[in-house]
Design goal:
Helix content: 25-40%
Distance between the termini: 12 Å
Mean pLDDT: 94
Radius of gyration: 11 Å
Strand order of the largest sheet: 3-4-2-1-5
Structural class: alpha+beta
Strand content: 25-35%
Number of strands: 5
Number of helices: 2
Shape: globular
Number of domains: 1
Length: 67
């Protein structure tokens, strides 16, 4: 089972949402909310320039994505 849902908004932002308890806990522990520019939708909106850092850390911790 995937831990995060990830999609591009094609406007310089990326949409990401933890979809497992493990993913949610990891997001909070890493304080990734500091990269969120809008959290009023179902997904967190992050700048695409920060996507690589966040995704690399997620993968390094043996978690994966559902697109």
């Amino acid at each position: 089972m995937a831990d995060f849902h990830l999609t591009s908004a094609n406007d310089g932002t990326t949409l990401i949402r933890p979809i497992s308890a493990r993913g949610h806990t990891f997001w909070q522990e890493k304080n990734f909310n500091k990269f969120v520019v809008d959290n009023t939708a179902e997904h967190y909106v992050i700048l695409t320039k920060n996507q690589q850092k966040i995704c690399d850390e997620i993968r390094e911790n043996n978690m994966d994505f559902n697109n």
